[in-house]
Amino acid sequence: MEFGPILRAMTRNKTGAILIALQIAFTMTIMINAIHIIEERNDAMARPSGLDEANLFYLTSTGFADDFNEQQQIEEDLRQIRALSGVVNAVQINAIPLSGGGWSMGLSTEPGADADGTGVAVYFVDEHGIDTFGVEQVAGENFDITDVGWRERTDTEWPDKTILTVAMATEMFPDDPMSAVGKTVYINDTEPMTVIGLIKTLQAPWNGWSGVERSMLVPQKMLFGSARYLIRTEPGARDTLMPQVEEMLAASNRGRIIRSMRSLEETRERSYRGDRSMTLMLKIVVGILTAVTALGIVGLASFAVNRRTRQIGTRRALGASKGDIMRYFLVENFMITTMGVVLGAIMTVIFNIMLVDSLSLPPLNVWYIPAAVLVMWAVGFLAVSGPARRASNVPPAVATRTA
Amino acid sequence: MFSYYFRLALVSMRRNPILSALMIAAIGLGIGASMTTITVNYVMSSNPIPHKSDDLYYVQLDSWDPNNAANEPNEPPDQVTWTDAMALMRDAPALRQGAQAKSNLVLEPPGDDERPFMVLARSNFADFFPMFDLPFLYGSGWDRDADEARELVVVLSREINDRVFGGENSVGRTLRLGGQHFRVVGVIDEWSPMPKFYDVTNGPFDEPEEIFIPFNTMVDFQFSRSGNTNCWKAVDGNGFDAFLRSECVWIQFWAELPSQAERDEYMQFLNSYVEQQKALGRFPRPMNNRLSNVMQWMENQEVVDDDAQVMMWLSLMFLVVCLLNTVGLLLSKFLAKSHEIGLRRAVGASRGQLFTQHLVESATIGLAGGLLGLGLAWLGLRGIELLFGDMVDRMTNMDWVMVLAAIGLAIVSAIVAGLYPTWRACNVQPAAQLKSI
Predict the structure, then answer these.
(1) pLDDT digits (tens, 9 = 90+) for B407-434
(2) Do B385 and B249 sit in the same domain of this protein?
(3) pLDDT per residue over A314-338, tens digit each?
(4) Residue at which a domain ends, from B271, B300, B329
(5) Distance (Å) from the C-alpha of residue B62 to the closest C-alpha of chain A?
(6) Which of A27, A219, B39, B339 is the most buried (most CB within 10 A)?
(7) Residue B37 lies in a domain
(8) Are residues B7 and B137 in the same domain?
(9) Contacts of residue B328 in chain A, CB cutoff 8 Å?
(10) Residue B123 pLDDT > 90, yes or no?
(11) Which ipTM score applies to this complex?
């Protein structure tokens, strides 16, 4: 290959080459970092919540009438909802996974204010909780109806039983998470709770929290002024049951408001809307950017071919084949692209370090860099192949013409 | 002369229509993407109360856990306890000050026809209204006596007044809130500062409140709070009273301190108050009280979304690529015109004239790109609205500052992109070009 002559020719007209190399470097920096963010978001969105999401919805009942008996109403509501045909199960709950709002506490394996607590999302449910979620119980047992008590908003005491997710048990008992069943954990520094069972997966309400897999179930029904019901339906029955349940509850007591009804699918959509939109915007940016860079290469290469028409003709007249001419432009482009990707790799890493530092993004997977190098070579090759082919079609006779 | 150069530029652009279109499109896309993301960042980081932002101070007291900072590194909690808020209200020396919290309440309109509904409520002290300059449509806020007397008064938003009272002057009318009869004392006009600086803890881009009630009244009736509550220490005992006296933080506290002397005095008060509380066994951490003005507080709370910042940096790099692209294409184009330039030089055009001519050509391309970019930015913002829906409410409006910035950015970009090629074009040696003809 004629690297030497091409390089010498290039140094005579550095600017064009430098511009393309810089463009490629920036394109590569944006592309890799954007794809890195897209991948990271896609991974986050793919995490299961543990729930039977397609068949769940929830709503809130807020009593306001002076004679509103909250406890009686909750028991009545749950009985009515569970009796509806098409409803698999229903439960009163304080927070919804993925919804963004909830309650967290710290659990520790030793009592005392100095013990290091592990943050955990708290879900107050009764013995129907596990079945309503559709989560898998992997060890121990479920709450019994006799375990379930009532909790006032400002109560600070905790019942003596709990069920943890496997992730929470792993955090607390890293050596043997399954052995957590039967062990005692401490809440509020000193209050003991016995772990009676483990469930496989149940996400906390905050999808951006690093401990999103850590949840605990607490056997209590709540007298908080507003009651939220989570309802699981037979497959396909959700959309008909939603308005039906809403009307039924509203009609059964005029002294309350039924509000904030939402399916879990919608909650997931809202929860990850920012991430999904971000990935879409990044894809558009990367797409347009690649097109702009490729068209820029086409434009510059076309100019180069036009300017060198006579020179090409002379080379052809002196015996260079069409393939030789074509190869010249391809090799030249390959060399420029290579300079670009070397610079691009450095810039990519620097930009990624900046993102990691200032915006706490996870660091880049290094394999993206060689992959992007291949992509940039391919883009450069495709972009320059058109002008290169045109160059190879310059007839030798051009050399004999004067202008 | 200028119009002649402009015509020459158009002729030159028409000679390579595809190339010219590519350059204009590149600048347009770069400007469009940049302005879209800059606008979102600009709105997120804008000053919500410019005429007073240096007078309003957010109060933080470090009442947190001796073993762990509320927020690393050694940041005090972002809200205060009820005990401290009440002590400050009683004794702290400020021109105006106020504790506030967020609630949800059931509103029962007068008359039997309309159904009750939930409203977003803020409970605050009398100073809230003059401190943050709320615009009143009817009536006014309540006064400090009403706070003391724990009166049942309410200020409505325009929207709620329209819905409940048909937009009439409702001052003096009553409605039921959380089961109690409240008297309307004022109706505010549209008021939704961006960001919602007075309560960033519960969301800097949340919807504005629909009603305002006295803080003490909210406490008296134990209305349900919907704001963020954080406790480092278990609440001692059951019941609302135990909660109030706990170390849980759930109240935002602002003070209006227009002069340095007042700020010093206030800080001194905070420090001596904490000393006094330490003697009582509270405040186990080292003294760490803070006063932050509005913009410092926005910065401290990092209200600008990380994603928005990442997108802005990426789109600015994208603009750089587009400009490099334009530089390369313009350079090639001008160099291809070397003969013409040489000829013009030979027949008497000065370098300065050629420079102006080609700069006009670059600026024309830049202006066209800028206009395209402005349109694309508008489209981009509509796209963001479409993607994010109600989550970016009011965040995607370009004001005239942004429109001017977009045009300015386009012209500067185009001239920067055009300067080097223009300079190269002017350095053409007429003799070298003419010889070969």
Answers:
(1) 788 778 877 888 888 888 787 777 766 6
(2) no
(3) 888 898 899 999 998 899 899 999 9
(4) B300
(5) 18
(6) A27
(7) yes
(8) no
(9) 16, 19-20, 23, 296, 299-300
(10) yes
(11) 0.85
